[in-house]
Amino acid sequence: MALRSGTVLLIGCDPQESRLLKDLVLKEEGDLGVVQVDTVAQALEAAIQDLRLVVLKVGDQEGRPELLVRRLRNHWGPGPPLLVLLPRGRLRRVRDILRAGADDYWIPPLVGAPFASRLHLLLDWQESESTTRRTTTWQDQPQWLRALRRSLYRFTDSLFRRRATPPEAAEAARYLGRWEKVRRLGFGSFGEVWLVQEKDGTRAAVAKVPHEEKMNRKFLMEAAILRRLAGHPNAVAILEVIKAGGKVVLIQEYVSGRTLQELLDAGLEPRAKERLFLQLLDVMAYAHRRQVMHRDIKPENILVTPSGTLKLLDFGTAKDVTRRSISSTVIGSRPYMAPEQILGRSRQASDVWALGVVLYALATEYLPFYSDNEKELMDLILESPPEPPRELEPDLPLELEGIILRCLEKDWQKRYANAEALRRSLREAFPHFGSGRVLPGS
Q1: Does the structure show a pLDDT above 80 at 335?
Q2: How far, CA to CA in Å, does 362 sit from each of 21, 272, 353, 368, 388?
Q3: The pLDDT of residue 169 is above 70
Q4: pLDDT tens string 97-113
Q5: Which of 68, 73, 181, 358 could form a disulfide with 101 if both were Cys (CB 3.0 to 4.6 A apart)?
Q6: Residue limits of the Protein kinase domain (predicted)?
Q7: Catalytic residue among 103, 104, 296, 314, which?
Q8: Which fold has domain 258-429?
Q9: pLDDT at 79
Q10: Which fold has domain 177-253?
């Protein structure tokens, strides 16, 4: 990653917040500076070169904070990322401030790895933007030209979101920053996934592009979670975050291989099953230690490279639980969803349930709960006990059946608390797990 440079502008932050933000910014490698002002009016009068990020603190008494956001966005155009610090009592204004041009928001206090990850992502995002924009910045232009461009920006934004001329549109459709689209890999409810390559053809990657700009914050949250998992061999690496056509685009490492579901359908040896499950436990234990729950663990979201390395995909449904121990959103794939997850109360123990379903399937080649009727499937998960694995596979060790059934307890408090506790129990019962002597072949 290139060294960061430029200026971070803080507006209206209290002394403690300013110190915290300065510490986070100034400890970064590169040549970043911090400018602090008290009001938006002062910010608009400040002559700042190479503006890297704007952080706006909204007060409890601010009637319409979206108007402040709009003033800042109209002044600087679509360029620098804008982060709004929003009091908990002003959450009703979130949609308005995002529509007005804010890129992200945060509810103080500004503590912990999650906030630091979000801040660094916005700095990285601006770095990616600056490598492809023209040398002349918005502020460097003559005053009359800036005024004209601001008027044009407001007008075209209300119509077509800066509609391009046909040649520009073709270029924008082909490139995402410095990445050239090669072929579309997938299409889902939130966006598209593309195989891309750097313009010089030296490196391939995967680009996740939202359908609409209103999904930008969701993609930023996914990027922040991936950043917190950076360095783990079983987590997909995020290369950079860029903004293209007003949309936040995630550029991730490209991994070739087959899904665990495809491998199970083709048949897997016991040793391969055990080693893959240990890798899955390892990355989930790593995530849980960083207060991240995945919420959609299933064989289709697990990729295995030709060398046998597991990669856990699709952290788009993941949740940061540093500020709440549970999630109130119903997200996941039904056969792998825990009872409390169906009810919209996900916890780390909900991931343990999904890990138990995967282990049940590896051990028996069956799912513990299944029905083509979704209502019936949910009723089974909520009310019916699973068939004991040894009734389907009598040669399974009794201790393994006990571990699986504990993962599938209806009451989340009776399960293993997290993936690390499950891994520890499995290792204690089967120190040789991974050698192919515990699970059957398929």
Answers
A1: yes
A2: 47, 10, 14, 11, 14
A3: no
A4: 988 989 899 999 887 77
A5: 73
A6: 179-430
A7: 296
A8: Transferase(Phosphotransferase); domain 1 (1.10.510)
A9: 78
A10: Phosphorylase Kinase; domain 1 (3.30.200)
Q: Let me know if 320 is a catalytic residue.
A: no
**Residues annotated as binding site for ATP?**
208
Encode pLDDT of 26-80 as tens digits.
876 567 889 999 999 999 998 887 898 999 999 887 779 999 999 999 998 887 8
**Per-residue pLDDT for 152 more than 90?**
no
The encoded tokens of residue 104 equal 């992200």
* Domain 6-123: CATH superfamily, name plus number: Response regulator (3.40.50.2300)
- CB neighbour list of residue 388: distance below 8 Å, 6 or more residues apart: 401, 405
Please determine, for residue 357, whether its predicted confidence score (pLDDT) is greater than 50. yes
Residues tagged in the binding site annotation: 208
